[in-house]
Amino acid sequence: MSFYERHGKRMLDLAGASVALPVVAPLIGAVAAALWATQGRPILFRQQRVGKDDREFTIYKFRSMTVGAQGQGHGLWYVRGDRRITPLGGLLRSTSLDELPQFLNVLRGDMSLVGPRPKPREIIDRYKSRYVETLRVPPGLTCLAAIEGRNELRRSQMIAADQRYARRVTLAEDLRILAATVPVVLLRRGFFVADRSEASTEDVEPDPA
Fold it and tell me: Are 64 and 92 in contact (CB under 8 A)?
């Protein structure tokens, strides 16, 4: 591992989150208040995700779906017009505002500003051999796949992007991804693909049971 991976990356995470949080704090408060007024508690959605070295942690997001949505309809998957997504939740998802609480995950060391997006255990176990390489780096608030197509990518393309990132973690690359994420989020690039479905996205054969 390079010096940046051992020490510099964490320093960038702490500095970036410390600067960003005071700026976005009013927005976080406004979103929390709007969620409280329109859909009640819980305001935050908590879920176990797999992080560095295959360790699980609790990820935080603003709740964008109805309570118990994972056990209904499409489960982990969602589609256009999915009735489990609340009206405000749809706006939060499309603007990525639902991800703001993950700055807390960054401060706690569960996540980094940049790295492969953390996956649920179900996805990791389904394609375990292909995620071994990417699990050696911390998951990120944004990632290479996000700026290369986001939801337009198929599973094989997402995995390839994560692997490319994990093989060469540098300050220059992290800063490039952070800068490129801004227009992706502001313009909502790749948020929704008309013909997107689980069958068309999951184009990788699962590992043998």
Answer: yes
